[in-house]
Structure formats: C-alpha cells, structure tokens
Design a protein that fits this description.
The chain has helices at about 50-55, 65-70, 75-80, 85, 100-105, 130-140, 160-180, 200-215, 230-240, 255-265, 275-280, 315-325, 330-355, 360-370; strands at about 1-5, 10-15, 20-25, 30-35, 35-40, 60-65, 95, 110-115, 115-120, 125-130, 145-150, 190-195, 215-220, 250, 270-275, 285, 290-295. By secondary structure, the protein is α/β, with parallel strands linked by helices. Strands 5-15-14-13-12-11-7-6 form an 8-stranded parallel β-sheet. A 4-stranded antiparallel β-sheet has the order 1-2-3-4. A 3-stranded antiparallel β-sheet has the order 8-9-10. Helix 7 packs parallel to helix 8 and helix 12 (about 315-325) packs across helix 13 (about 330-355). The protein is globular.
C-alpha cells in the first residue's frame, strides 16, 4: 500500500495498493467515495427503488441520462422545477451521461454528422438534434455535479477505419464540449471520454489528446459492447496507465461484479451499470456466492434468506421465488434493492482493503466465494 499525496481539489487520492486506488470526489452535493458504483437512474429514477432505499444501500452518487430526460420531461422543465436533484428527491451527487451511448443503441433512429447527432425520437418520432454544445447545456439545466462530453460509442468488433473515425470525431466533440462547459457553475466537473475500441494505439492517442485538453476526470468508453472480457481488461489496463493519477477514472457501462473487481485492480475508480436492477427485475440476485436465479424451483421451499450470513430484510428465498413466479412487482423491488446493496458492499469492501493494503487478499477471497457458488440447504434426515 502507498499513502497517496495527490489532491487536485475535486479528487483526493487517499491510498493505493498496486494499481488499485481509493479516494474521494468533492462535489456540490457531497462526497463520493471511490471505488464507486453509480446505480443507473435513466429516467430520473433507479428502477424499482425509492431514493431513500438507494441511499440506505450505501450509494453516494447516481447516474441519469441526458438523452431520455431531454425528450421527457425536458431539461428546461426540470430546471424550472428546481433542477434534477430536487425533481427526483436525490439531494446527493448526480452524474449525467451525454447521450453518446444512444448514438450507438439508437443507430436506426439517428443521423450522424460532424456537427452532432439528429435523432428521431423513440417516443413520438419528432426530430431532435444533440450537439456537444447542446449536451453540455442540457446537463447544466439538469444541474449535474459531473457532466460528460458528447462522444460516439460503437459496437465491437468494428472495422479499424470506423474505430479511428469515431475516435477522432469524439476528440473533436471533446474540445467543443470543454469550450461549452467553460461557463459552468463553480464546483461542477466535466469528464472527457477515451475512445478507440479495441485498438490500443488509438486508445493511447485518444487518452493523450484528452489529457492535453485537460478535464476534471477521464472516462473509458466504448467497452462492454460485444468484446471478450480479456480484451476489455487489456484495454482498461493500457488506458488507465495513460491517465493522470490526480484525476478520477470512470469505466462506463461496466458491469458485473467480476468486471468491476478486475477493473479496480487495474486502476479504475468509478462504474455504472443497469445489471443490478435489470437482473433484479428478472429474478436474479447477486450475492457473495455468485448469482442466484430465484425462478428455479429449488428455492420454492427454502426458508433461508439470500445470504444466510448477511440476511436481506427477513425475506425467505421461498417468498422471493413466489413473488418472481407470480410476477409481483415486490419481487423485482426486493431483488433490485438486494443487488444494489450487494454492489455497494463490494465497493466498500474494496475501499477498505485498498486503504489497509489488503486488496489482493480481498480480491482472492471474493473470487473464492463466487467460485464456491450457492450452497443448497441441508435436507432433513
């Protein structure tokens, strides 16, 4: 373990253990402890959970989506109602993505040009333009603590020429986003996004150019979009090593507990992913002993909680199985909450281990728990 001497105001690096780091972000709405997992609140809500429950799980910061909130209810309307924090009753830090992911996910509904992206709204078919300048303006209207540059994210595998084109377009948009952000309120932060797909040379060039522009933090985008885990981790390790240690590093859209543990080992500080709530809505719980599918009949008469050592509010596996099979909304709510709490417990465990120089021990014991798997209850003799 090394005691960190780095403090750039916005980000304070507390300790390192190998490449793993723990620290803290200071935002207008509070402190974010890193490594941090940001539950995804696309439509100004973490699906199936009240804000108080999200916070009670140990969440410091949530993510909201620029594209979706631009369409409904509208950024100007949210601003008139006092901003996103008040609107969604979350008085803590918020990061907003820029809409760049939708450039990929809504490819059939958009037209891409150097100026920006024109979308055909998936709600009513209306034409909507999103430029780097407009993306920054929307995030300002929402009142985000951390804003993201507009970028182009493309699926992998991809043609090398296409990877280079998207990377260079994202760099141009990064520069324009930074100029547009110049008048932002004090304390707010802007992150640049490293692109380049699985091409390490493009990743290095993108990282170098973004660092030269100078951002408050740096994201690694364009991963977990179809490539093998080994490829993703190779890109993460190479890219993170090129980013300044005094700035936070955010791996966008990742991921599984295993992905996050491995990315922290390679120097990543922040994550977001829909998996804990999406899987919860589909009957799957994340636990210290791997995922548990509550749809399986073996849980129908199991009186144990999800994790016998940690508990989960007194709800038995049998009851959760019943709720899932009956398609009751409470099942999705309880499993979403259990999953967010597990993700935050994993983050807290990593932070504590890094601070005491025991990250590798924590990594090994966590992986052993996942390999062990869920143990069936003892049968009556």
């Amino acid at each position: 373990m090394g005691e960190a001497m780095v403090d750039a105001g916005f980000f304070h690096l507390v300790a390192t253990d190998g490449a793993a780091r723990c620290g803290a972000l200071t935002t207008p709405h509070g402190i974010v402890r890193t490594p941090a997992f940001m539950p995804v609140g696309t439509q100004a809500t973490v699906k199936g959970m009240r804000p108080e429950e999200v916070r009670a799980c140990g969440t410091d910061i949530v993510l909201a989506n620029t594209y979706h909130l631009m369409l409904r209810p509208g950024a100007e309307r949210i601003a008139a109602l006092g901003g996103l924090h008040r609107f969604m009753n979350w008085p803590y830090p918020i990061l907003t993505d820029s809409g760049g992911f939708q450039v990929m996910s809504l490819a059939q509904l958009r037209k891409l040009a150097p100026r920006g992206v024109t979308f055909r709204s998936h709600l009513d078919g209306a034409l909507v333009e999103l430029t780097p300048e407009r993306a920054i303006e929307i995030q300002g209207l929402l009142g985000a603590d951390i804003s993201m540059q507009l970028d182009e994210c493309i699926k992998l595998p991809a043609d090398p020429a296409e990877l280079e084109r998207a990377m260079r377009l994202s760099l141009d948009w990064a520069e324009r986003s930074k100029r547009a952000f110049a008048g932002a309120a004090a304390g707010r932060a802007l992150f640049g996004i490293v692109q380049g797909g699985d091409d390490l040379a493009l990743r290095r060039e993108s990282a170098r150019a973004l660092v030269d522009l100078g951002f408050d933090g740096y994201a690694i985008g364009g991963l977990a979009v179809g490539e093998p885990q080994e490829t993703m981790l190779t890109v993460v390790e190479e890219t993170a090593s090129r980013l300044p240690p005094e700035r936070p590093r955010y791996l966008m859209g990742v991921g599984t507990p295993e992905d996050m543990l491995e990315a922290v080992a390679r120097g990543v500080d922040m994550f977001d992913c829909v998996l804990p709530t999406r899987n919860g809505r589909h009957g799957v719980a994340f636990t210290r002993y791997g995922p548990i599918n509550l749809k399986n009949a073996r849980h129908a008469e199991d009186p144990r909680p999800l994790d016998p050592d940690a508990g989960n509010g007194g709800y038995s596996r049998a009851y959760l199985h019943h709720l899932v099979k009956a398609n009751e909304m409470l099942g999705a709510m309880l499993l979403s909450q259990a999953n967010i709490c597990y993700y935050q417990a994993l983050m807290q465990g990593m932070r504590a281990a890094i601070a005491t120089g025991e990250f590798e021990d924590f990594r090994r014991s966590t992986q052993e728990g996942w390999r062990r798997g869920d143990i069936a209850p003892a049968t009556a003799g």
